[in-house]
Amino acid sequence: MSYEFLPAHGGRGLALEAIGAVLGWAALVVPGQLLVAVTQAANTRSRRLLENLGLAVTDRFVEYGQEQLLYTRARAELT
User: Fold this and answer.
1) Is the pTM higher than 0.90?
2) 50, 22 in Cβ contact below 8 A?
3) Are 1 and 22 in contact (CB under 8 A)?
4) How many CB atoms are closer than 10 A to CB 27?
């Protein structure tokens, strides 16, 4: 899953609505599949969004010179 909005459109709940819709769609179309998202540790807004949608950090790694967080949603939560 990947998303990006222009700064002028931030803070309107668009990402929450869009990613929430993707999660709902995935639960119907590919039930039981593991869902994964990655964001930089420094990106607090994306981290809060993912956590509000029920994803949890399951790994940390460095890529592009920055700490990245791997978020997953438990398989049981997708069904």
Assistant:
1) no
2) no
3) yes
4) 16
DSSP state of 22: H
The pLDDT tens digits for 21-64 are 988 998 899 988 888 999 999 999 999 999 999 999 999 999 99
What tokens does 20 get?
Answer: 């929430």
Q: DSSP characters for the chain?
A: ------GGGTTSSHHHHHHHHHHHHHHHHSTT--EEEEEETT-HHHHHHHHHTT-EEEEEEEETTEEEEEEEE-HHHH-
Angstrom distance (rounded) from CA 79 to CA 62: 31
